[in-house]
């Protein structure tokens, strides 16, 4: 029903000016003032479980969004937590890397190599005697057949090397001493140097080397046949560049020229073979230095040190197949390993004692190797004075030297 028109103010209106009246259709509509008033906010309904549920239709305010986003302080806290976890993992890995060799070192075999009586003066630099023994001790009959070691009894040396670590800035030096070198042996006359090991073991060999070189030997390391093959297999073989086709039935190898990965059996044959080598013992000594450097280099690669079971297997094989002198420390062993790695990376020198005659006839030891006395003494004098060596001295790299 339409609103009735208002009569003019004061024109016959009941009550006069005091009786202004708004007539509203109560069935439809409301006063204009009420329509302009904002609607009340919807109240939050209580949840029967006692929790307050906000209106889902209500949008979050900018202030609320700022509260949800992580602030700089929260991000810094998360960053510090990440760094802490990473640091903890690195420390744990380093502790593992140190603990494994230290634990193995406590169980390693010890030998008495320190000579009695007067010895050369201990000068600057460190000199170590590294020996490869052909002892079959610890090998089963099946292992001897597999490794082609034969059945020789007693201990002899297949490898004799001097390792010099300079303290004056020179390169590390690895020097092969041919096992057939004809030298004076204390209380045994003149003979091949490997006879010293047979006559008196590590002690007499150390005394002989000190006597003929004038160097004080600071440490002694000896590795057997089985230990050598075990270390190679523990790290999955060692890549080596074979300088030529090599077939040696006595050493049990048939290798083709070129770079390839050798397992323990073929590696052992590679470093022991000499009958097929035109340089004989000198050629074999060169291959031994080459391979030992490659072995130590491979043992420090991520594929070895980052795989726990491979790393522990290698360390266990080394500790089980290596013997050290009673006065040789873990630091000494570390210096030797680092020197061989340097040689493999062309950061060290791989040398041979200067030779005058490869087929020197003797009255008591058959054909032997005679040193070039003048050049050999000059080399040992340089090492004794710890003069920095950066290039091979004359006469120390005869024949081929495979890389």
UniProtKB/TrEMBL annotation:
<feature type="region of interest" description="Disordered">
    <location>
        <begin position="384"/>
        <end position="403"/>
    </location>
</feature>
<keyword id="KW-0472">Membrane</keyword>
<protein>
    <submittedName>
        <fullName>Cell envelope-related transcriptional attenuator</fullName>
    </submittedName>
</protein>
<dbReference type="InterPro" id="IPR004474">
    <property type="entry name" value="LytR_CpsA_psr"/>
</dbReference>
<dbReference type="Pfam" id="PF03816">
    <property type="entry name" value="LytR_cpsA_psr"/>
</dbReference>
<feature type="domain" description="Cell envelope-related transcriptional attenuator">
    <location>
        <begin position="156"/>
        <end position="299"/>
    </location>
</feature>
<dbReference type="InterPro" id="IPR050922">
    <property type="entry name" value="LytR/CpsA/Psr_CW_biosynth"/>
</dbReference>
<keyword id="KW-1133">Transmembrane helix</keyword>
<comment type="similarity">
    <text>Belongs to the LytR/CpsA/Psr (LCP) family.</text>
</comment>
<feature type="transmembrane region" description="Helical">
    <location>
        <begin position="81"/>
        <end position="105"/>
    </location>
</feature>
<feature type="compositionally biased region" description="Basic and acidic residues">
    <location>
        <begin position="40"/>
        <end position="61"/>
    </location>
</feature>
<keyword id="KW-0812">Transmembrane</keyword>
<feature type="region of interest" description="Disordered">
    <location>
        <begin position="1"/>
        <end position="73"/>
    </location>
</feature>
């Amino acid at each position: 029903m339409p609103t009735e028109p208002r009569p003019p103010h004061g024109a016959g209106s009941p009550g006069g000016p005091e009786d202004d009246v708004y007539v509203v259709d109560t069935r439809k509509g409301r006063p204009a003032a009420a329509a302009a008033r904002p609607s009340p906010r919807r109240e939050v309904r209580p949840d029967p479980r006692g929790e307050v549920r906000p209106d889902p239709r209500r949008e979050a305010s900018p202030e609320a969004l700022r509260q949800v986003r992580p602030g700089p302080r929260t991000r810094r806290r998360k960053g510090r937590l990440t760094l802490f976890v990473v640091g903890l993992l690195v420390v744990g890995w380093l502790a593992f890397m140190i603990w494994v060799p230290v634990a193995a070192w406590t169980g390693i075999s010890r030998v008495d190599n320190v000579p009695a009586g007067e010895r050369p003066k201990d000068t600057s630099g460190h000199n170590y005697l590294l020996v490869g023994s052909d002892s079959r001790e610890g090998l089963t009959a099946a292992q001897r057949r597999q490794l082609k070691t034969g059945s020789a009894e007693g201990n002899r040396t297949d490898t004799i090397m001097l390792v010099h670590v300079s303290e004056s800035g020179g390169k590390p030096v690895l020097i092969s001493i041919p096992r057939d070198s004809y030298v004076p042996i204390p209380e045994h006359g003149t003979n091949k140097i490997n006879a010293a090991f047979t006559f008196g073991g590590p002690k007499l060999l150390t005394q002989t080397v000190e006597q003929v070189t004038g160097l004080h030997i600071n440490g002694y390391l000896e590795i057997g046949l089985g230990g050598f093959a075990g270390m190679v297999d523990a790290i999955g073989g060692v890549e080596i560049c074979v300088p030529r086709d090599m077939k040696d039935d006595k050493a049990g190898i048939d290798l083709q020229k070129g770079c390839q990965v050798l397992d323990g059996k073929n590696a052992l044959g590679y470093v022991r073979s000499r009958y097929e080598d035109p340089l004989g013992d000198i050629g074999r000594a060169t291959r031994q230095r080459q391979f030992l450097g490659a072995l130590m280099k491979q043992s420090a690669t991520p594929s070895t040190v980052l795989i726990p079971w491979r790393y522990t297997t290698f360390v266990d094989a080394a500790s089980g197949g290596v013997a050290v002198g009673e006065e040789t420390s873990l630091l000494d062993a570390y210096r030797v390993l680092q020197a061989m790695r340097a040689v493999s990376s062309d950061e060290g020198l791989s040398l041979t004692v200067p030779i005058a005659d490869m087929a020197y006839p003797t009255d008591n030891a058959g054909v032997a190797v005679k040193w070039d006395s003048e050049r050999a003494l000059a080399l040992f004098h340089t090492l004794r004075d710890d003069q920095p060596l950066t290039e091979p001295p004359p006469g120390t790299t005869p024949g081929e030297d495979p890389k």
